[in-house]
Amino acid sequence: MKENFEKIKEFLDENKAEYISIEHEPMGKSEEVAKMRGVDIKTGAKSMIVRSEGRFYNFILSAAKKIDWNKVKTILKTKSVDLATAEEIMKTTNCVIGAVPPFGNIYGIKVYCDVSLLENEEINFNAGTLTDSIKMKTKDWVKIVNPEICEFGK
To answer: How many distinct structural domains can be found in the chain?
Structure first.
């Protein structure tokens, strides 16, 4: 899956974004990852692929928050919403669960960002693999991803 990481770095370079890449052992929980990165958990960008009515969406929020599914339903104007399956995530992004970067736009997926993530000067996230992370300025991420900003964290 290293090609995912390379694709993301290429995207960042093309957009002249400043970032730091970190290679590390695979980590599980957000708390572990934040500790390994030496950052506050709230700066972690939790990236989820959500499915509704046969379409996929990328929802991004602070790793310190949980997703409010009722708010997601309201945002998408739907009655049914689920996390995409591991197979759907692989088919859509070529990533495994936990490695999906907050760049749905490079996969042709609409991106939604919770306001909680914008409270941080920097964001940190897994970059297409479970062993590669990126740290960058939140404002740069917003500029190149252009997500829809809304509130769906709790």
So the answer is: 1
